[in-house]
Design goal:
Elements lengths: L2 E12 L2 E12 L3 E5 L6 H9 L6 E6 L5 E4 L11 H5 L18 H10 L16 H13 L5 E5 L7 H13 L3 E5 L3 H7 L2 E6 L2 E6 L2 H33 L3 H5 L3 H12 L23 E10 L2 E11 L4 E6 L5 H9 L6 E6 L5 E4 L12 H6 L4 E4 L2 E4 H7 L16 H14 L4 E5 L7 H12 L4 E5 L3 H7 L2 E5 L6 E2 L3 H9 L27 H34 L4 H31 L4
Parallel strand pairs: 3-7, 3-8, 5-6, 6-7, 12-18, 12-19, 14-17, 17-18
Antiparallel strand pairs: 1-2, 1-4, 8-9, 10-11, 10-13, 15-16, 19-20
Helix pairs in contact: 7-9, 17-18
Pfam family, one: ABC_tran_CTD
Protein name: ABC-F family ATP-binding cassette domain-containing protein
Keywords: ATP-binding, Coiled coil, Nucleotide-binding
Length: about 600
């Protein structure tokens, strides 16, 4: 290993505040680094410092001599008159110094990369000017991937890629030589490609060995250590305050250094990190019928987005909807909400269904209002558990505290607008959530909070997403749309979806020849891949149910203690408790039986 980039006590700030404060980092020639952090923490600024596209306020950034660095920024400026060939192979975007000499640089190789990124039919002579922002971004990414470089820096490369494209990109980067630094909110991708994680927070950068899973465990351990240190500090603080509060005569004789030490303890309280605590609000009662699609078709010109689809969705279903861009996922969700009428067939909606649709579009937000006004437009008071909250209190729970509630919606960041959009939906007390790419613009901490909220959601959830981690985390079943107008059940989940596309899975550390589609049969208990996937989903569902039953049981014990002298009430509660304990025992037995069939569970 050889060092290629060094940051020595680098600081960088803007008018809004200091982003990085005396950061020192080193990068070796074979490092693969994932960069994570809250929106606005300074991740993109760190990448610009690494490329030397901006200068630090203080400190120094040094590169190895003749270091070749290429980068995909968040915003692109491609020449308007250029073609795909000019950008990818030529020097229309990247200078001649980065000539495409890689084996991928031939026409066939370029087409292979474009196909991997989800644009198999894009001609090399196609102009880039009329393309969408997502298409231009993928063309620029292709230009970087076919070039040899010592350091490849990517800022949110998975944006505008579907699950298959993300899988292909991960596999491609694992085969690539050279160092890699990538900012991403896609946790599956982070785990697949990164061997080191840099967390940008509170003006500093902490380095962790491993990808997202290792970083999560390390951060949890750090939080545990900090909590233990804070507990010791609080104990000492209580003693010091008790000592200072003794009678006035004693106070005049207290040694000055003791008083100063106590004051330092009181003052030395670290600032509370701006955490988002998404909470499940009250939901309307959901009946037995949710949605029934009977022979539904939707056409767009000569193309059939939905082709005689028959599909039933029941109460409590948790469905992940996957498919390529343009396959019809958003169309299907709009048909379910009633905002798009089918060309033929019938959609029956349960009488008690109260849906909330989180679309990909942020223009649904009232940009002319302030945050608090936007919340009050939906509900001035909401119910959270056994509490009633005002709109201002609800906004604070979703991370809009203090003066932030008076910020114009138009001035919010993309992640804040997404969070406000979700807040407004939940405030209406829906019982069915239809989420179209809900992870767009959300940082990793907010994604974790969203998943925690969905874990306890009592209604029906349908999630259309390219975020594999989210789909596998919160959904019990997965269905796919392959662009043929059908809705296909996938007992094997995302792995089955990729296998049907013929996509080799990205396996960290595995040689290219070893990255083949998952076998049809699994050695685990003789189950097929689909059966194993379904069993694991059922196991997760049973675990959630056991947790809910344990909470209800604890609540009943508390009620029994409260009403100990009311014999009639105690008898009713005791009967309910016995019934609950029987249900819990049966659920635990089912869990144990299923767990024995899945060795790794």
């Amino acid at each position: 290993m050889a060092n290629i980039v060094n940051l020595d006590r680098v600081s960088k700030g803007y008018a809004a505040g200091q982003l990085l404060d005396e950061v020192s980092l080193g990068l070796d020639d074979n490092d693969r680094v994932g960069v994570v952090g809250l929106n606005g923490a300074g991740k993109s600024t760190l990448l610009k410092l690494l490329t030397k596209s901006i200068e630090p306020d203080t400190g120094r950034v040094t590169h190895r001599r003749d270091l070749r660095v290429v980068a995909l920024p968040q915003t692109l400026d491609l020449p308007p008159g250029a073609t795909v060939r000019d950008v990818v192979v030529g020097s229309a975007w990247l200078p001649e110094a980065f000539a495409a000499e890689h084996e991928w640089a031939g026409d066939a190789g370029v087409r292979s990369v474009l196909a991997g990124l989800g644009m198999p039919d894009l001609g090399l002579d196609a102009p880039v000017a009329p393309m969408s922002g997502g298409e231009r971004r993928r063309v620029a990414l292709a230009a970087l991937l076919i070039r040899e470089s010592d350091l490849l820096i990517l800022d949110e490369p998975t944006n505008h890629l579907d699950i298959s494209g993300i899988n292909w990109l991960a596999a491609h980067l694992l085969r690539r030589r050279g160092a890699l630094v990538v900012v991403t909110h896609d946790r599956w991708f982070l785990d697949a490609v990164a061997t080191t994680t840099w967390e940008v927070a509170e003006g500093t950068v902490r380095a962790y060995e491993g990808g997202y899973a290792a970083w999560t465990l390390a951060r949890a351990e750090r939080a545990r250590i900090e909590a233990a240190a804070e507990a010791r500090r609080q104990n000492l603080l209580r003693k010091e305050i008790a000592w200072l509060r003794r009678g006035p005569p004693a106070r005049t004789s207290k040694p000055r250094f003791r008083i100063e030490a106590a004051n330092a303890l009181i003052a030395d309280v670290p600032p509370v990190r701006d955490q988002v605590s998404l909470q499940r609000l009250a939901t309307a009662r959901l009946g037995k019928q949710v949605y029934e699609l009977d022979d539904v078709s939707v056409n767009l010109g000569t193309r059939s987005l939905l082709d005689h689809v028959t599909w039933n969705i029941g109460p409590g279903d948790r469905i992940g909807l996957v498919g390529a861009n343009g396959a019809g996922k958003s169309t299907l969700l709009r048909v379910l909400t009633g905002s798009l009428a089918p060309d033929s067939g019938q959609v029956r909606t349960g009488q008690t269904v109260k849906p909330a649709f989180l679309s990909q579009e942020l223009h649904e937000l009232p940009l002319q209002l302030r945050v608090l006004e936007a919340v009050e437009e939906v509900a001035r008071r909401v119910t959270l558990g056994d509490r009633e909250l005002s709109a201002a209190q609800l906004a604070e729970l979703f991370g809009f505290s203090g003066a932030r509630v008076w910020t114009p919606v138009a001035d919010l960041s993309g992640g804040e607008k997404r969070r406000l959009q979700l807040l407004r939906l939940l405030a209406a007390e829906p019982n069915v959530l239809l989420l179209d790419e809900p992870t767009n613009d959300l940082d990793i901490d907010t994604l974790a909070a969203l998943e925690d909220l969905l874990d306890s959601w009592p209604g029906t959830v349908i999630v259309a997403s390219h975020d594999r981690y989210l789909v596998e985390r919160v959904c019990d079943t997965v269905v796919a749309m392959y662009g043929d107008g059908k809705v296909t059940d996938l007992p094997g989940g995302v792995d089955e979806y990729l296998a049907k596309l013929g996509a080799a899975p990205a396996t960290p550390g595995a040689p290219a020849a070893a990255r083949q589609p998952a076998p049809v049969k699994s050695a685990d208990g003789g189950m097929s891949a689909g059966e194993l996937r379904a069993a694991k989903k059922e196991l997760a569902r049973l675990e959630r149910l056991v947790g809910k039953l344990e909470q209800r049981e604890a609540s009943l014990h508390e009620q029994l203690a409260t009403h100990a002298t009311d014999y009639e009430k105690v008898a009713a509660l005791d009967a309910e408790l016995r019934e609950l304990q029987a249900e819990r025992a049966a659920t635990e037995e089912a869990w144990l039986e299923l767990a024995e069939r899945i060795p790794e569970a």
